[in-house]
Amino acid sequence: MSEVKKAPAGGGSGGGWTRFVTARPRLTLLVALVLTALAVLAGGGVADRMGSGGWEDPAAESTYATEALEHRFPGSQPNVLLLVDAGDAGVDTPAVAAEARKLAERLDAEPGVDGVGSYWSTGSPALRSEDGHQAVIAARIAGEEKDAAAVLDRIAPAYRGTHGPVEVSLGGGLAVRHEMQTVIQEDLLRAELIALPLTLVLLVMVFGSAVAALLPLGVGIVAILGTNAVLRGITEFTDVSVFAQNLTTALGLGLAIDYALFVVRRYREELAAGADTYTAVRVTLRTAGRTVLFSALTVAVSLAAMLVFPQYFLRSFAYAGIAVVLLAATAALALLPAALVLLGDRVNALDLRRLLRRGGKPAQDTAGSGRDEATDAAGAGWGRAAALVMRRAPVFAVVTTAGLVLLGLPFLGVTFGTADDRQLPVTASSRVVQDQLRDGFPGNPGGGITVLAEGTATPAQYADYRERIAALDGVGRAEGPVTTGGGSAYFTVVPEGETVGAGAQRVVGELRAAEAPFATSVTGPAAVLVDSKDAIAERLPWAAGIIVLVTLLLVFLLTGSVVVPVQAVLLNALSLTAMFGAVVWVFQEGHLAGLLGFTSTGDIETTLPVLMFCVAFGLSMDYGVFLLSRIKEEYDATGDHEHSVRFGLRHTGGLITAAAVILAVVMVAIGTSRVTNTKMLGLGVALAVLMDAMVVRSLLVPSVMKLTGRLTWWAPGPLRRFHDRFGVSESDGHNLSPAPDVEEVSGRWRETTSLRG
Asked: What's the farthest any 2 CA atoms get from each other in the chain?
């Protein structure tokens, strides 16, 4: 058991950062503990300040029309619906009608509630069920989403339930979003309770040592709590989606564990090579630490690309993602080294795997080395697998690429839609109401298309316009106008078929193209979807360009090659094909819907593929950087390309696979959510991570690098000189390790020559 080594007072090759984080390790950890406690206080109740919407473009025509209608015609945009069930008596019986009118009057008198209307006051057939047993009271709760939700919480108990001869249930867009927020919070807590113990068990299996296993978990918890505090601060200035908390948990655990795994594994390797504690930490930070930094920057850039989109749903994931990535990297590069300095070789203490060994006997002298026979055997297995792949490189490259492309083919049939109440489980109260409205009413109340008309017009002009839009293909009926004295009016258009289906979207385009004697603006769910798709399509090239260009630059700075960055981007993109194909096959087409417990709507929410691409691409690059950095380190030391590829797979294959499995466990725990979008995100990214680690990194990368040979490391003279001056690599700290003994060198030589043979 080694004692804590004091950092050298100055100079040396350890670097200023190493001296900074290791000079006073106890103080460093104490400060971190205090900051984490403050983060717990600051981040408390953050979910209550988040929203559950954010799919609309704030600058779109539909957003303008919605806001204008909310101020001028509150009743045109109802977000709360009271479903009044009269049973066999029917909604037109005097007693039922009297009770319904009384409820509507009470609702209209509630502070914060505007635009109350009902079947009994308007006689609209759209507000009465086809069997005559149910009818609707519609209203709008105005204000910001959080304020409107507070009003709903206040009034809901007074209206939900039995009132004389009727039974009342609450639905509408606001009720759906509010219940979705509640379900997400409950599901996130359950996911954390599932993920944390499973993660700890897997870490113990990877490290053996319970002490080493707790370190990555601690880094993850610090990152999650810190990000919650950051998000709490951001909610003071802008809207943040409650869905972003799922990404906080997933990336907080996943990336923190990835980074800590890489750092602790390298530290244990240095200890096993004979280094003292301080030297081992110094080398780890100069090698694995730089890789962690580059990996974090790559992931952060992938997530930051979502800031170019106007929808706050996507921007929220950028806020959460950037914060959690940077906090995870900071904890791994500051708190973790301080803990390692204090622990020394006690990082290998409490080897729980001894309990599983036959007879309870420990493996041969492994307690202080950070190695055991299983680890060595696994590493040799990865080395042999890499050699096999490279011997048949053309076959593996072609077959693997073809298989990934084939898995992605279903995405060619993707249909984009918008999130609605069917995201919720079938037992959710607001979902039950919406199902009854969808199935039993001639037109889904509140789900049609609304046309805002601005400008002076005569009754004849209004009537002529209504007749022309009613005659458009795909329009079921057109109602209106409802006017004010201020030169504004609105028309309600009920499309045939689905509220946001392809037909409804086509009607939106025709309404916007139709000539009118006044200015028109179109809104409604279908119009919001059309505008959201346009906004994403307009900005998607910018987001993709940012991700690709910055990734190319970062990988070039790490490797000094212009070929490796291009390979990394192309192979990473290829690793996502299975995820996108599965999303369409499972969630759009409905395969496995019963097993996974969701309702397929026949489309994919528009923003989800963008989100999943940014998250999965960043995580894939995370593993790519780990592998490439180790290959480059060995290539710089030996100049042997094929040996370096085998060496990289041998020393990181098991680590990357373990990290991917742990991250997949976390994402699957998130995927147990009862909300479909969260389920899709969790399960889809889990699949992408596993495909990347087990197929792309294991088969495609070594086969492609074999085919490109020494050309892999080529760069033109000016760029090579640029890299020599500004680039970094793990090999910068390679000579800091104690020299390996003769037996280790001869063992490496025997491994290399046998693999060549």
From this structure: 99
- Other Cβ atoms less than 10 A from the Cβ of 363: the count is 18
Instruction: Give the C-alpha separation, 466 to 460, whole Å.
Output: 10
Q: What is the pTM of this model?
A: 0.84
Q: What's residue 749's pLDDT? A: 36
| C-alpha to C-alpha distance for 282 and 14, rounded to whole angstroms | 6
DSSP secondary structure letter of residue 4: P
Flag whether pLDDT at 129 surpasses 80. yes
Beta bridge partners of 451: 491, 522
Q: Do 83 and 134 touch, CB atoms closer than 8 A?
A: yes
Tens of pLDDT, residue by residue over 69-114, are 888 887 778 889 999 999 888 999 999 999 999 999 999 999 989 8
pLDDT of residue 757: 35
Q: Which residue has the tokens 């280094």?
A: 275
For 162, counting Cβ atoms within 10 Å of its Cβ (0-12 exposed, 13-18 middle, 19+ buried), the class is exposed
Which pair of tokens denotes residue 392?
Answer: 């048949």
∠ CA 251-616-596, rounded to 5°: 85
Q: Is the pLDDT of residue 262 over 90?
A: no
How far is the C-alpha of 734 from the C-alpha of 731, rounded, in Å? 5
Buried/exposed 515-531: b ≥16 CB within 10 Å, e otherwise = ebebebbbbbbbbbbbb
Question: What average pLDDT does this structure show over 390-396?
Answer: 94
Q: Which amino acid is at 337?
A: P
Q: Which residues pair with 84 in a beta bridge?
A: 135, 168
Q: Is residue 605 within 8 Å of 677, Cβ to Cβ?
A: yes
At a CB cut-off of 8 Å and minimum separation 6, what does 34 contact? none
How long is the chain? 757
Q: Which helix (H) or strand (E) holds 615?
A: helix 608-638
Helix ranges (H only) for 560-576 are 563-575
Predicted pLDDT of residue 379: 65
Q: Which two tokens stand for residue 707?
A: 């085919």
For the record, the structure tokens of 142 come out as 């105005």
Helices 373-391 and 701-708 pack at an angle, to 10 degrees, of: 50
